[in-house]
Write a structure and sequence with these properties.
Layout: H1 8-27, E1 32-37, E2 40-45, H2 46-67, H3 74-79, H4 85-98, H5 104-130, H6 136-157, H7 164-183, H8 190-210, H9 217-239, H10 245-266
Length: about 270
Amino acid sequence: MRAMSFPLSKVRITSTLVAAGLLGSSTLRLPVRELSLPGWSCTVSGGTILGLLLVGLTCTGMQAIVSDHPGTSSQSRHRALLHWILPTLLTATAWASMDRLGTIQHGLVGASAAGAALAALMTCEHRLAHSDGHRRPLVLSALRLSAYAVATILYAAIPPRISVAGAAAVTLSSTALVLRLIWDDGSTGRISLWLAVGLGAALGALSLATSFRSENPLQHALELVIVLYTSTGLARHWLLGRLTRRVLAEFAVIATVAFALLVSFAH
């Protein structure tokens, strides 16, 4: 059997273009555009348009990286949409965070780090899509850790005392994260989608309710990540029919210890 080819050039091109776009968004003063339709108009900044282009570039690049393989079936191409989630969220989070970097040097470091992280995520997603049974658990574990890292950065990028719009952003991103975390266990039914929507909405409401008592974005982000980890872990076990009292106790202990450590370090 011929060895699987790795699309290194596509990974390099996509990650380099995204990194260049992120650097441009932090260093260039882009004009503001007014979009108008009959009875409706809005003002959109050039940075927002660039961010949308970068997200679209990440999606198309990820689709080409995952699907452009001789052995990819039509069902696998449909499932390739799931492999967009983490790279797209990483690009969107990096774009939203670039305006906080004050100097060109910091912008260059941030864009380079984001590009390198994006390349690593794309590589892991490609390995997962085309890996055999021996490699799959290791790659899946790496991607789950990456998902929680992306979630931490994403939640921390949202300022304290978020608005309803911020809570909506948390809801949408959390729904995508939950779906990505529970889908690779074979839980591919419609119930998985509704479960992801419900957990995403719960995390959005929780972020809105708890943001007013926390002035530390990192602490707030870690609190949400603990809830994300616990809820997705329980959801995976429930969907696979493995949710027992022992599993409930294990996750309860992990969540309690994690919250206790977070509170102790915060004070």
